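On clarity, I found the account of how folds are encoded harder to follow than it need be. Since the whole study asks how a given chain folds, the encoding of that fold should be made plain. The format is easy to grasp once an entry is in front of the reader. For illustration, here is how one protein appears when written out as sequence plus structure tokens.
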Amino acid sequence: MKKLLFPLLLGLAAVSPAKADINHSITSSVQLTVNAAATQAQRIGSTFSAAGTGVDVTDGTTAGTISAGTISSGVYSPGTIAATQNATSGESFSYSASFIQADAVPTSAPAVGAVGNFSNVTSTGIGVAGSLAGSVTSAGVNSVTAGGGGTSAISSIESAITIK
């Protein structure tokens, strides 16, 4: 009886089923975009600097005053500045001044499509759909057709298999 029991147990072990969970998914998509008109503007401000050695500076009214400038509509005007050598003849001196004029502050919002008079402006026109199109069939076939300027079409198919 011992001889029969061993082959019977071996036969039972060979027929045990294997278990696995398999999941498969397919996702298809099409994305169509028509851009809106956009304008980005950056207004720069006024900057003024003066530096020197061996000189006296004045705005014409008070010694040592380098500017009696004015600000109008957000734009600084430094006024007239005079630099006079304060050393005796033949001694060295240096003087430098720099000025960047600001963009004027607008008094009202720009009209649609208008661009302000700022120093740094990027303007993009409105997108034109034209023949822009896209579709996904029930069989998972994607198709896209190019449109006009300022448009984009993106098609994607994702296939995922998970085995646990």
